Amino acid sequence: MPVRDERGLYERICLEGFQAGLSWATILRKRPAFRAAFADFDPDVVAGFGGSDVDRLLADAGIVRHRGKIEAAVGNARATVALRAEGGLPGLVWSFRPAATPRPRTAAEVPTRSAESEALSRALRARGFRFVGPTTMYALMEAVGIVDTHLMGSHRRGSSGVWPEPEGRA
Questions:
Q1: pTM of the model
Q2: Is 155 labelled a binding residue?
Q3: Which CATH fold topology does 6-143 show?
Q4: Which of 90, 116, 73 is nearest to 8 (CA)?
Q5: Do 151 and 105 meet the contact criterion of CB atoms below 8 Å apart?
């Protein structure tokens, strides 16, 4: 379903970064612990985390204990707060919605990146975000409804309402 709020997008950027190199099952299983550890992904709170908080998080067995990813989540909170002066994270992320969404008929046709995800990655990196590569940002775009990569004919295709299929063409 579409995610258009700052906290929701910040959380998903963080979780996509933590997922890099791991299975989604691991991240989803740990999601409650991530929310507890990162103040329910409140960017204002996480932006205030310091070295002792990073040490605390590195000792938290409930989350992925990777210093670079933890420090990126803190830095990304600071970048999220700073981005408010430019209109905010939701406006920036959603500005990369393509004119059309993919129309895959097989799993092999589902893309893993796009020109828009590459541009979003560059835009976020330019503003201080980390762990936001183009493949990771494409996964974010799928997760928040910016693109719909459900297979044509899938019962989930178009269910977000962002990309409704024309009648009789699903």
A1: 0.93
A2: no
A3: Endonuclease III; domain 1 (1.10.340)
A4: 90
A5: yes
